[in-house]
Amino acid sequence: MVHMDAFTLSDLLEGRPQVIDNEKQKACYDTLDTLGIGYQRVEYNFFPSEPEHLRLIDQTLDVPGVKNLIFRTKNKSQFFFVILPRESRFDEKAFRSKFELPKITMAKGEDLKELLDTHAGAVSIMELVHDQNGVIRLFIEESVLEEKFFRFHPNENNSTLRISMEDFKHKLWDHLFIMSDFQLDVDSPYPRPTRDELQMMPRKLEYSQGRISQKHYGKYVAKMFDNLRKESDTEAQHDAIEKLARYMRSKSFEYNQEHPNNEVIIKDIKMMTNGDIQLNEDAINNLRNDYKQHLPARPQKGASRPAQKQNGKAGQKPQHNNSKGRANAQQRKKQ
After folding, report:
1. HSE of 283 in the Cβ direction (CA atoms, 13 Å)?
2. Cys staple from 316: which of 222, 271, 289, 312, with CB 3.0 to 4.6 Å?
3. Which pTM does this prediction carry?
4. pLDDT digits (tens, 9 = 90+) for 57-79
5. Where are the domains of the chain?
6. What is the 3-state secondary structure of 276-303?
7. Helix (H/G/I), strand (E/B), else coil: 224
C-alpha cells in the first residue's frame, strides 16, 4: 500500500472486494464473474487529479491511463463513447470528418444520468450495460487495444480494474456476433460463437434421492432415530424417544385427522429402527401429548335462541302504555 500526502493507494488485488459500496458496483463484478473474465484491481480513498498520483495507479496496474469521453449531437439523437490514451488530445474535427458526423458536444450530467446512470468522473465502459436501447456508439483508439491490459472503473471511481486485453477482445468479438443476431459475415481472429454455446442454461437442481418410508412423519424423524440408536446415555435416549413419540402422534393426527392407535406408533418406531428401539404401550399411554389438536366446539343440533318477552308473547312487538294519553283525549272531547 502506498501513502502520499492524503492519497492512499492499495497494492494490486485479486477478485472482487469483500465489501461492495452499491448495486452498480455489484452489477459490474457480477457481470465479469458471469462471463468468466478474470480481473485485478487497485483501490484508493479518492480519485486523484494530481499527475504523480495518476502515475502511481498506472505503475501498479502496469497499463497507461485512458480517457473516457461521451459526446452527443445537438438534438440528442446520437451519442458517442470515445476511449483514448490519457495523454492524447481528442481531435473533434478529424473525428467528425472520418465518421461523417454533424456537430457534436460533450454530454452533460443529466445525459449521463439518464443514459448510463452515472456521473462525470466515473464513466466506464462497463456502464454500457445500462444502454438498453443501444443509442451509444463505442469508439476505442487503436493504441489502447495494443496494450497488454484494458482498464476501467467498476461503475464508480473509487477503484480501477484491469483485465487481459486478449480476453477483452475475445468477448468484444463475441458480442459483435450477438448484436448482429449471429448474422455477421466477417473473419474473426477467434472461434465463431453459436447461439447454443452462448445461451446460458439454468443450473440443474439436484433433488434428494432418498426414499422416505413414512412421509407423514417427515424424513428427519427417521434420521433422529438412527442417531438415537448410537446414543450411550440411556436416560437421554429414553427422554428423546418419548418426545419423538409425542411428535409422531401429533403428525399422524394432522395427516389422518383422527387420533392414532398407540400400537401404530409403536410399530412404526420398531420398523424405522429395525427393532433396535422398542416402546411398550404402557409407556406411550403415560406420555402427555404436548401437540394435542384443539378443535372448535360444534353447536348442538336443535339449540334455539331464547325468546325475549316484552309486554306479551315472544315475537310480538312491544306495546307501550298509553293510558295517560287516552285520558287526556277523552277530557278534551268532553270540553
Report:
1. 13
2. 312
3. 0.53
4. 999 999 999 999 999 998 888 89
5. 219-285
6. CCCCCHHHHHCCCCCCCCCCCCCCCCCC
7. helix
